[in-house]
Amino acid sequence: MSKYIVRIQLNHADSTDYTLLHEAMAEINFFRYLQGAFGFWYSLTNAMYYGAATLTAEQLQNHLDQMIEKLYTVENTPPTNHEILVIREDEYSYRLFRAKADATDIPPPDRYLTAVI
User: Fold this and answer.
1) Residue 95 falls within a domain, yes or no?
2) pTM, whole model, 2 decimals?
């Protein structure tokens, strides 16, 4: 299992498109938060996700591409109008804002960094 940072850009998208994407990414346990030292949660920048997978970076990128095409074909968003960057985590450093205490989409502990793909 590897940990990944993923950036997905939906070109010409609106907030509804990103809401669908956030929900689809959460279904595969990729979240817009990073848990740091002492258990604090940090918000990732826009269109970034963090999670784990048993796939290689290329396999994960292909999986996400297919997922987005299916998701947005149904919703009438052009399926080829997106960009995906997948980075396998080996080491990282960050300066991020702490997540808001009332954030409702922070992942539950049993799903955080649990590979489902």
Assistant:
1) no
2) 0.84
How many domains are there within the chain? 1
CA–centroid distance for 30 within its chain: 4
Joined together, the tokens standing for residue 26 give 């959460």
Taking only the tens of pLDDT, the chain with its 117 residues reads 999 999 999 887 788 888 889 999 999 999 999 998 788 999 999 889 999 999 999 999 999 999 998 887 665 555 567 899 999 988 778 888 889 988 888 998 888 888 888
Q: Which domain holds residue 80?
A: 2-88
Question: Collapsing DSSP states into helix, strand and coil, what is residue 87?
Answer: strand
CATH of the domain at 75: 3.30.70.2360
